[in-house]
Each structure stands twice: as structure tokens, then as C-alpha cells.
């Protein structure tokens, strides 16, 4: 099993059912040294507002989220779901857990 840190859309039960056909159970955690940035992504019916993680100049800036246990197949589904504005990288969370997260793709 893999760990996935979600700070936004992937915490939605509706999105989880659509992507994984199940509801995920997670644990709250934080990522320090990063912040959220607004992002507009063009979708089928126009522009939609999202957030994306970017590094912060302040190492204590927290991003609050949830860590889910997922399979490699689940991660592949999320890779397809996320737009090319995001990329998946591994980070170490406040708890010491190493997890995948989707950050800004520059």
C-alpha cells in the first residue's frame, strides 16, 4: 500500500467514489514548508478554481490534509484524474509519514 496526502479535491467522498468506487478512510496530518496557491484549470464547461501546493519561504507554514492508504492502481487513477498542472512527488509529513502528494508542475 502507498500513502497519499490530500489537501483538496481528493478528500471529497463524491470524488473518491468516482475514482476508486469506494470511500477512503484517512488520518489527519500536515505538510510544513509549503503553502496553497490558487489555480484555474479549464474543464469541459469552462474554468474552475482549484488550489495547488507550492514551496513556501517559511518552513513553519502548514498545509492541513488527510493521509489515505491507496494501492498502486489507485495512484494510477489519480495520475489520470489530476491535470498536467500537477505532478506527484513524495514528501515527509509532520508525523514522519512519507506520502505522495500532487504539487504544482512547473
Explain how this protein is built.
- A three-stranded antiparallel sheet has the order 1-5-2.
- It is built from two helices and seven strands.
- 17% of the residues lie in helices and 52% in strands.
- It has helices at residues 13-20, 72-81; strands spanning 2-6, 26-32, 34-43, 46-55, 62-70, 86-92, 98-104.
- The longest helix has 10 residues, at 72-81.
- The protein has a single domain (2-104), classed as Hypothetical upf0131 protein ytfp.
Globally, the shape reads: globular
Number of strands: 7
What fraction strand?
over 45%
Question: What do we call the CATH homologous superfamily?
Answer: Gamma-glutamyl cyclotransferase-like
Main β-sheet, in a few words?
3 strands, antiparallel
**First-to-last CA distance:** 28 Å
Given this structure, which CATH class is correct?
Alpha Beta
Number of domains: 1
- Output the helix-strand order: EHEEEEHEE
* Tally of DSSP helical segments: 2
Determine the CATH topology. Hypothetical upf0131 protein ytfp
- What strand order characterises the main sheet? 1-5-2
Helix content: 10-25%
The structure class reads alpha+beta
Second-tier CATH architecture: Roll
Instruction: Calculate the mean pLDDT score and round it.
Output: 89
Radius of gyration: 13 Å
Contiguous runs where pLDDT drops below 50 for at least 5 residues: none
Organism: Flavobacterium tructae
InterPro entries: AIG2-like_dom, GGCT-like, GGCT-like_sf
Domain Gamma-glutamylcyclotransferase AIG2-like: 4-104
Protein name: Gamma-glutamylcyclotransferase
Amino acid at each position: 500500500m502507498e500513502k497519499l496526502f490530500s489537501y483538496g479535491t481528493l478528500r471529497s467522498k463524491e470524488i473518491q467514489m468516482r475514482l476508486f468506487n469506494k470511500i477512503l478512510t484517512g488520518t489527519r496530518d500536515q505538510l510544513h514548508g509549503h503553502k496553497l496557491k490558487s489555480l484555474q484549470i479549464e474543464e469541459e464547461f469552462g474554468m474552475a478554481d482549484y488550489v495547488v501546493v507550492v514551496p513556501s519561504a517559511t518552513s513553519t507554514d502548514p498545509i492541513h490534509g488527510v493521509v489515505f492508504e491507496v494501492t498502486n492502481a489507485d495512484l494510477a487513477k489519480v495520475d489520470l484524474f489530476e491535470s498536467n498542472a500537477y505532478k506527484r512527488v513524495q514528501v515527509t509529513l509532520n508525523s514522519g509519514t512519507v506520502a505522495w502528494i500532487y504539487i504544482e508542475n512547473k
